[in-house]
Design brief:
Blueprint: H1 8-31, H2 43-55, H3 63-94, H4 96-109, H5 118-125, H6 130-153, H7 157-165, H8 170-205, H9 213-222, H10 226-257
Helix pairs in contact: 2-10, 3-4, 3-6, 3-8, 3-9, 5-6, 6-8, 7-8, 8-10, 9-10
């Protein structure tokens, strides 16, 4: 059973306490001497390295340039997943024949982890932008398609029948009946899709990229610089959080306008 919602002040207080507790444990572990500082730096050493990476190039670029490169790849793969997944999910929901043709292949492919596409991406695209985009697409595509399909399938049948009685063809039925009704489900799927796409990007950059935050982390590991690796992890987490916050606000706005 879900308990009552916490007041905003209590929520942020507990959040701050949790973050402070995690930092204390991290600091204590770093200062204990159990692990050499080279492999477990203190929080302030990581923050200092993060600030240094922001202004000084590492493996050719500053941290912000690496982030920009990562975001470019992510945007391309994510937009491609949305551009393919949303129309395909709507068409599958409207046409039973298309649903029966696509579902077996989709069900087989969606259980393949995005990182499993790395060898193919490396063979097909080398270290070019196509490899990471393919891997991001394979991570972001399934949630978009699934949520679009489910949202469209839950549309009340009487609305579809009414549109057909009024002479609406498949295109108008999909765009004017299914799509508006499925929008909340689609936006919810975008949050999941963006998270999986961002995680897939980092995995791709660890192997098939010559720039980006994942590439920076690989080079930091090669240089035995744990602070560099952890700085990249912090950057990845913060950017992922910002993407999720933006999509959450979009979802809340749509739900508010629809009275949900």
């Amino acid at each position: 059973m879900i308990g009552p919602a916490l007041p905003r002040a209590a929520f942020w207080r507990l959040t701050a306490m949790g973050a402070a507790g995690a930092l204390l444990v991290w600091t204590a572990a770093a200062l204990s001497g159990i692990t050499p500082r080279q492999f477990l730096p203190t929080p302030w050493e990581v923050l200092a390295r993060l600030a240094q990476l922001s202004v000084e190039p590492f493996v050719g670029h500053t941290l912000f340039v690496h982030l920009a490169s990562s975001l470019q790849r992510f945007a391309m793969g994510f937009v491609l997943a949305v551009a393919v997944g949303v129309p395909l999910g709507l068409v599958m929901a409207w046409f039973t024949v298309v649903d029966r043709l696509i579902t077996p292949l989709f069900e087989a492919v969606r259980f393949v982890a995005p990182i499993a596409w790395v060898p193919f991406a490396a063979l097909w695209f080398g270290t070019g932008i196509g490899g990471p985009v393919l891997i991001i697409f394979m991570g972001a595509f399934p949630p978009v398609l699934i949520n679009t399909y489910r949202g469209a399938r839950h549309v009340d049948r009487k609305y579809i029948e009414a549109s057909q009685m009024l002479g609406a063809g498949a295109f108008r039925g999909i765009t004017q009946v299914l799509l508006p009704a499925a929008v909340p489900s689609i936006v919810a799927g975008l949050r999941i899709s963006a998270g999986l796409g961002w995680q897939s990007l980092v995995g791709a950059e660890l192997i098939v990229a010559s720039s980006g935050v994942g590439y920076l982390m690989v080079k930091g590991q090669a240089a035995v610089s744990t602070a560099t690796v952890m700085s990249g992890m912090i950057a990845i987490g913060l950017v992922g959080l910002l993407i999720d916050i933006a999509l959450r606000r979009l979802q809340a706005h749509i739900e508010h306008r629809r009275g949900l």
